[in-house]
Amino acid sequence: MNAREKEQYLREYSILKSQGKPFFPYAVAKDGAMAAITLGVIILMAVLFGAELGPKADPTTTTYSPRPEWYFFFLFELLRVVKPPALTFVATIGIPTICLMLLLLLPFYDRNPERHPLKRPIAMIGAVATVAAMTYLSVLGALAGPPSEIDIEVASQYQRGADVTAASGCLGCHKIGENGNTLGPDLTEIGDRLAVTRSRARSSTRPRRCRRTRACATRSRSSSTRW
After folding, report:
1. Do 100 and 132 have their domain in common?
2. Could you tell me if residue 103 is inside a domain?
3. pLDDT, tens only, 99-155
4. Do 55 and 122 meet the contact criterion of CB atoms below 8 Å apart?
5. Which of 23, 56, 125, 201 has the fewest other C-beta atoms within 10 Å?
6. Total domains present in the chain
7. Residue percentage of the chain with pLDDT more than 90
8. For residues 41 and 29, what is the distance between their CA atoms, to the nearest angstrom?
9. Cα–Cα distance measured from residue 76 to residue 91, given in angstroms and rounded to the nearest whole number
10. Which positions ≥6 away from 184 have C-beta within 8 Å?
């Protein structure tokens, strides 16, 4: 923007400002009245229809799959992508806070006075990228399975065992792959460890052959000849 365009912009802005009304009390009164009406409608609906309550929580169930509300699906999927427990803080607080700070600081690092979307590349790229990322993560979160499922690939003959393990609530204490908790031992490589233990057990119970087979056979023949 050159000096002539800037001067014209300031002149038009001063004219519109002189013809308008101050923010206080006109805009504040309108916003306050609308907020009071909305609050009154919510209170009236709560009194007349009541709040919808689900079934009583059962802490012993293993079939309940915790799912957030639809407007938190993007954050739910972000937690599924950032799986290491040490990075949970980054997924829940770090990344959303950085995005919020970039949005709040947008007027300071994008000083372009133009209002046409095609003339605001920084603002438009940021807005489109944010909406696209939240939409993509929300769709993935809506289509994703429960957090209690086992996310490691297993052979087809072991799939039934994986389903039984996931349905039994084992991930509430044990960790399998990247899902689960660390209250109990990690069961990710339990199959390999059990295979090694079984092979050692079989080798220990197998009868040992005598290293001096020929000598033992000679002694047995000689003892039978004497008798």
Report:
1. yes
2. yes
3. 889 888 888 888 877 778 888 888 888 889 989 999 999 998 888 766 667 767 777
4. no
5. 56
6. 3
7. 12
8. 18
9. 9
10. 173, 174
Q: Is 69 helix (H, G, I), strand (E, B) or coil?
A: coil
Question: Cα separation of 151 and 179, whole Å?
Answer: 7
Residue reference for tokens 């939409």:
135
* Residue given tokens 């079939």 in the structure block: 63
Domain extent at residue 189: 154-201
113 occurs within a structural domain:
yes
Residue 57, domain member (yes or no): no
% residues pLDDT > 70 (the chain): 74
Q: Do 134 and 175 fall within a single domain?
A: no
- Rg of the Cα trace of the chain? 35
d(CA 128, CA 170): 41
Paired with 179 in beta bridges are 176
Least confident interval from 33-37, 49-53, 126-130, 193-197: 193-197
Q: Is the pTM here over 0.90, yes or no?
A: no
Please check the confidence at residue 200 and state whether its pLDDT lies above 90.
Answer: no
Pairwise CA distance, residues 86 & 135, whole Å: 26
* Bridge partners, residue 176, by sequence: 179
6, amino acid identity: K
Q: Report how many helices (DSSP H) and strands (DSSP E) the chain contains, helices first.
A: 10, 2
